[in-house]
Design a protein that fits this description.
The protein contains 2 helices and 12 strands. By secondary structure, the protein is mostly beta strands. It has one domain: outer membrane lipoprotein receptor (LolB), chain A (Clam), CATH 2.50.20.10. Strands 7-8-9-10-11-1-2-3-4-5-6-12 form a 12-stranded mixed sheet, covered by helices on one side.
Length: 232
């Protein structure tokens, strides 16, 4: 079987994964409300909430409403992180963004888990939010380090750094994505909870273009340290 290792092709888990891929592959646009939790060593450091939009090919818009207004936008080529209170916007090429939303970028592209997962299996030790859901563990494919670009921790080469593990929680009834958890070896994790998924909502392409407001400074480079999708 090509792609990531998965349960037997006719098993309930495998069939659910196929339903999940098909459900999110067909629409050209998606939207959902989300709650994001940032954790360090199991302790919740920050909670944020807002609305997320996805438009194929390769566009995302995350509107943070609580506790303050932020915007994370990917227009297909560039990732923008805008905090109105800071009067600045960070701009980075989308392909160079070390953003932990990478698994969620699938929702704006070709919805195929094998593109990011080296293996997928049921996470039996992880308790789902509801008995009607199933949690899967995705071991991410290794990413090549870019020694020419420092990381947010100031490390030039990450070849020996383990890839983050990703947990997907999927509804058995609807095949909707309920929760996504990304955790790394340093004890840092970001967790997204999703509700109110809309498939093919009427969204304008202009929603995915960032227009720099007057008086706002543009900063080129990586997202600020500690902001890599853990807090856009």
């Amino acid at each position: 079987m090509d792609g990531p290792q998965a349960p037997a092709s006719k098993s309930p888990d495998s069939l659910l994964l196929r339903r999940f891929e098909e459900r999110y592959r067909n629409p050209s646009s998606l939207s959902a409300t989300f709650l994001e939790r940032y954790l360090e060593n199991g302790h919740v450091i920050r909670i944020e909430a807002g609305e997320a939009y996805f438009l194929r090919p390769g566009k995302m818009r995350w509107e943070y409403e609580s506790p303050e207004k932020n915007l994370f936008l990917v227009d297909g080529k560039t990732a923008w992180f805008y905090v109105p209170a800071d009067h600045s916007v960070t701009r980075v090429p989308a392909k160079e963004s070390a953003d932990w939303r990478t698994p969620l970028a699938l929702l704006a592209g070709k919805m195929k888990l094998s593109r990011i997962c080296a293996s997928i299996q049921s996470a039996v030790s992880e308790k789902p939010e509801s008995p009607e859901n199933v949690v899967f563990r995705c071991d991410l494919r290794a990413q090549k380090a870019n020694p020419a670009r420092p990381t947010s921790q100031g490390t030039a080469n990450q070849e020996n750094t383990p890839e983050p593990a990703v947990l997907f929680e999927i509804s058995k009834k609807t095949a909707d994505l309920v929760r996504l958890l990304v955790q790394d070896a340093a004890g840092i994790a970001v967790e997204f909870h999703f509700k109110n998924w809309q498939f093919d909502p009427p969204v304008e392409e202009s929603l995915f273009r960032f227009h720099v407001p007057p008086g706002i400074a543009i900063v080129n480079g990586e997202l600020p340290a500690g902001q890599n999708a853990l807090n856009p």
